[in-house]
Write a structure and sequence with these properties.
Elements lengths: L1 E3 L10 E3 L5 E5 L6 H12 L3 E5 H6 L11 H10 L11 H20 L12 H12 L3 E6 L2 E6 L2 E7 L5 H15 L5 E5 L7 H14 L4 E6 L2 H6 L4 E11 L2 E9 L7 H9 L4 E4 L7 H9 L4 E4 L3 H13 L8 E4 L7 H9 L2 E2 L13 H10 L4 H18 L1 H20 L7 H15 L1 H18 L2 H7 L5 H5 L1 H4 L7 H13 L5 H10 L3
Parallel strand pairs: 3-9, 3-10, 4-8, 8-9, 12-13, 12-14, 14-15
Antiparallel strand pairs: 1-2, 5-6, 6-7, 10-11
Helix pairs in contact: 3-4, 4-6, 5-6, 10-21, 13-14, 15-17, 21-22
């Protein structure tokens, strides 16, 4: 079966063969033109298309949809044919419940006169409620006196009508009931299928519905990334924008044929942003990275991805998909104990690596300390001189331990690279491993690092020490907060002071941004 797609900007409108897929996901940012896209799809499909929207069904009472196969048209047709159905019901949800109950009552009346062999195995309502029970196993349903009543397992005697269901429960009932009425061979266009629903319920609902109706094709219109990911085995269409050209709408859209290479964060960056993207480490809420970098790189859309490996991979993936977007992506990872070779390789891949060992060291930069001291009316020269002496002394006291940690990192990297070679037999592998210590020469690396670190101390090279010194307690041990005139002498106070200047764009904000950006050049 071919589906005619809307006019495409700069290209002819394609016809898409959907014989190999059960569903299509149309995804795009708010305002990109998804609704118009869906309207055009429905118009071109004509009588084969059925539109479903839980939002419209639950809250829009006056605008009727008289297209073929709609709940409103079925309701009007049922009344015209003569039934037990009330003619004053308003809104798709109430009308749907009425249609199902009307059919159920007529079936029960007919059963009294039909011979047993002609009785159906299950009514439409019974099939709907069977799916409902699978999704909500603690719910009981009873049809009584022309009403559908619900109760929960913990309160079986307190029954309530369908109108008292939660919005999520109503949405599920609406979709199940509407799907049961749709003719075979239809293309079902679902607007915002994740609305009102918990992600777990949402995924289970549409998996069940698609198994129930393999004779139909589903087109989902959404900006919900989690839902789009749950339907990744189908065809995905990314609607970027639409515009009016000579009285006709044209869309800029692409087909995403391999959605599995992108995770939700990368999708979000592609679909919802107009600024270049900056992927960073951290959890996006509590990490220092997530609090600091958006205030520094305010021309970027900054997104936290967790660990450094995910930052590196997402940046690479994003920039490899230039056919899908015109944006650029960068990443930031801590330097930690990476050597110049590793740092250079990452920078070529647009992964920014700062000239400090870890993000906490940014708050110990000379210009950052001087700026915070000046803002708090302290002598910047005196404050920085005291902080520098303390840091140099701390570093000198654990120089060998720091050199050992850097050596360990380099040895680990060296082993990883060398162990990946091909070996014809186990003896070759054993010989290779036995030679690794000689090839890598950890003692030589260690001694060279010790000499390098002593040179930093001898030359008073404070910036070089920040580049190699990993010590989470550095801020508090240096007493930089107290020296800068802050009320509390702890790490959090110094970090808050810097973030507050940046967030409120106070005096010193430009100097702070310049200092931090300078370590990424």
């Amino acid at each position: 079966m071919n589906i005619p797609f809307p006019p495409r900007k700069g290209a002819p409108a394609p016809e898409v063969d959907i014989s190999a897929t059960r569903h299509i996901v149309v995804i795009g940012a708010n305002g990109a033109g998804k609704t118009r896209f869906a309207n055009r799809l429905a118009a071109d499909l004509g009588g084969n298309a059925v539109r479903l929207s839980a939002l419209k069904a639950l809250y829009v009472k006056d605008n009727e949809d008289n297209s073929e196969g709609s709940i409103d048209s079925i309701y009007r047709q049922t009344i015209a044919e003569g039934s037990l159905l009330r003619s004053d019901l308003r809104g798709e949800f109430d009308r749907l419940i009425g249609i199902l109950l009307n059919e159920e009552m007529l079936t029960l009346l007919a059963d009294k006169f039909d011979p047993p062999e002609k009785k159906p195995k299950a009514t439409r309502l019974e099939r709907v409620m069977g799916h409902w029970k699978h999704l909500f196993p603690d719910n009981h349903v009873l049809v009584e006196s022309g009403r559908m009543l619900f109760s929960r397992q913990d309160t079986p005697d307190d029954s309530y009508a369908a109108t008292k269901l939660s919005d999520g429960e109503k949405a599920v009932m609406y979709y199940l009931g509407a799907i049961s009425l749709i003719p075979s061979g239809s293309v079902i266009i679902v607007d915002s299928p994740a609305r009102f629903l918990h992600p777990t319920t949402n995924s289970a609902l549409w998996e069940r519905i698609e198994r129930w109706r393999p004779d139909c094709t589903f087109i989902y219109i959404t900006h919900d990334l989690q839902f789009a990911s749950s339907r990744s085995e189908g065809l995905m269409v990314w609607v970027k924008s639409c515009e009016l050209q000579r009285g006709n709408w044209e869309w800029d859209y692409d087909f995403i044929t391999s959605p599995d290479v992108l995770d939700d964060d990368v999708y979000l960056a592609i679909l919802g942003e107009r600024k270049p993207v900056l992927f960073i480490e951290g959890d996006g809420k509590n990490s220092i990275d997530a609090k600091l970098y958006p205030l520094i790189f305010n021309d970027y859309s900054v997104k936290s991805l967790g660990g450094c490996d995910r930052v590196i991979e997402s940046t690479r993936t994003f920039n490899s998909l230039k056919a899908l977007h015109s944006l650029n992506a960068f990443g930031i990872v801590d330097r930690d104990r990476r050597d110049e070779g590793e740092v250079g390789y990452l920078r070529k891949k647009q992964i920014l690596v700062p000239e400090v060992a870890e993000v906490e060291n940014i708050f110990m930069l000379e210009e950052v300390i001087r700026t915070v001291a000046r803002v708090n009316r302290r002598d910047p020269d005196e404050v920085f001189a005291k902080v520098k002496r303390t840091i140099m002394k701390l570093f000198e006291g654990e120089l060998r331990q720091q050199a050992l940690q850097h050596t360990r990192h380099r040895v680990k990297r060296g082993v990883e690279h060398r162990i990946d070679g091909r070996f014809a037999n186990i003896s070759q592998l054993e010989n290779h491993i036995s030679d690794l210590a000689r090839e890598i020469n950890p003692r030589g690396i260690y001694e060279e690092l010790c000499r390098e670190f002593r040179r930093y101390l001898r030359d008073g090279d404070y910036a070089a020490i920040l580049k190699v010194y990993n010590r989470k307690t550095m801020i508090s041990e240096s007493h930089v907060a107290r020296l800068c005139g802050l009320k509390k002498d702890d790490k959090d106070s110094m970090i808050r002071a810097v973030l507050d200047i940046l967030r409120r764009d106070l005096d010193g904000a430009d100097e702070l941004r310049k200092a931090v950006k300078g370590i990424f050049l």
